[in-house]
């Protein structure tokens, strides 16, 4: 019996080691078509997907990300917010759309559109037996990525996605998520501090066990520790400036 989409979601884990087996053009097309059928704010379709097969371009993008699987994969996608086509329509129709795509709301709309399309691609790829990993690391140098991919104004790279057949030695298991009741609030948000902290503590213990088991006791980190370490550093402080340069979030 074919597995349900629910089952598929429960098996997800990021894959970072792939077999040397390129995706066919037909599979690439199907994946993009799956992405395109995601819901899109007001039918705006404010994204594009750039497929990268050229090893030299992959190598250049790997210099930005620092991650080997940007090169070693079956195929690489780069997801961009794209209002370039809207800027052309604006010119052609003599419209007054700049306020829309240069606003904070325009940025949110574009980012949401990109994420929905990308997750459709990811799920479809996983359904076909491929593994995927998202690559926010491409935002380490947005200017460089824009140069490598010839991105015009009103186009902003959000993340990449490596896709491929998981290598045989990529053993692992899905990472446990936060407790259901911590993430799900019915009718109203429950900000009860004691309850929230208790749930986080429980999750911290589970994640600590998970890392201890996976690394034979080498790594023993709670989720809270991981999050504090990561979120206490100011990551990519140039992003607002880069967005402005590309014609985003000016209003
Ligand atoms: C937008 C986004 C960007 C990400 N960027 C990277 C990345 O640059 N490198 C990487 O190895 N994983 C990256 N990931 C994968 C996350 O680390 C991973 O999804 C998370 O740790 C949960 O693990 P799982 O996907 O195996 O369940 C990214 C995920 C998302 C959604």
Structural account:
By secondary structure, this protein is an alpha+beta fold. It has two domains: 5-170, NADH Oxidase (3-Layer(aba) Sandwich); 180-220, no CATH class. It is 46% helix and 12% strand. The protein contains eleven helices and four strands. The chain has helices at residues 5-10, 25-36, 55-65, 84-92, 98-101, 104-127, 142-148, 180-183, 193-214, 223-231, 239-245, and strands at 47-52, 75-82, 131-135, 155-164. Strands 1-2-4-3 form a four-stranded antiparallel β-sheet, with helices on both faces. Helix 2 (25-36) packs across helix 6. It is globular. The model has no long low-confidence stretch (mean pLDDT 95). The structure holds flavin mononucleotide. Residues 12-14, 16, 67, 133-137, 159, 175 line the site of flavin mononucleotide.
The CATH C-level class name of the largest domain: Alpha Beta
What's the end-to-end separation, in Å? 52 Å
CATH homology-level superfamily of the largest domain = NADH Oxidase
User: How many E strands?
Assistant: 4
Helix content range: 40-55%
For the largest beta-sheet, the strand count, sense and barrel status come to:
4 strands, antiparallel
- Kindly estimate the percentage of residues that lie in beta strands according to DSSP: 5-15%
Q: In terms of structural class, how would the helical and strand content be classed?
A: alpha+beta
In the residues, how many domains can be counted? 2
The rough form would be described as globular
Kindly report the average pLDDT value: 95
Which molecules are bound in this entry?
A: flavin mononucleotide
Examine the coordinates and then state which fold CATH places here, giving the name of the CATH topology of the largest domain: NADH Oxidase
Count of individual helical segments: 11
CATH-scheme architecture of the largest domain: 3-Layer(aba) Sandwich
């Amino acid at each position: 019996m074919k597995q349900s989409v629910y089952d598929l979601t429960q098996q997800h884990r990021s894959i970072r080691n792939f077999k040397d087996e390129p995706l066919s053009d037909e599979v690439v097309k199907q994946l993009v078509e799956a992405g395109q059928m995601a819901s899109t704010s007001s039918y705006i379709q404010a994204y594009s997907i750039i497929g990268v097969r050229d090893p030299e371009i992959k190598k250049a993008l790997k210099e930005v990300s620092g991650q080997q699987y940007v090169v070693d994969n079956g195929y690489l996608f780069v997801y961009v917010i794209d209002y370039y086509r809207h800027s052309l329509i604006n010119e052609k129709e003599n419209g007054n759309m700049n306020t829309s795509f240069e606003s904070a709301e325009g940025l949110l709309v574009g980012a949401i559109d990109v994420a929905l399309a990308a997750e459709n691609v990811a799920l479809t790829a996983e359904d076909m037996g491929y593994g995927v990993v998202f690559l926010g690391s491409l935002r380490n140098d947005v200017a460089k990525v824009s140069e490598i991919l010839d991105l015009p104004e009103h186009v902003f790279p959000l993340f990449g996605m490596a896709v491929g057949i998981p290598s045989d030695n990529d053993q692992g298991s899905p990472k446990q998520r936060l407790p259901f009741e911590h993430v799900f609030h019915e009718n109203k948000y429950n900000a009860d501090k004691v309850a929230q902290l208790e749930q986080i503590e429980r999750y911290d213990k589970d994640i600590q066990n998970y890392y201890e088991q996976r690394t034979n006791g080498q790594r023993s980190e709670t989720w809270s520790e991981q999050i504090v370490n990561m979120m206490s550093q100011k990551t990519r402080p140039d992003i607002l400036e880069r967005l402005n340069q590309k014609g985003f979030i000016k209003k």
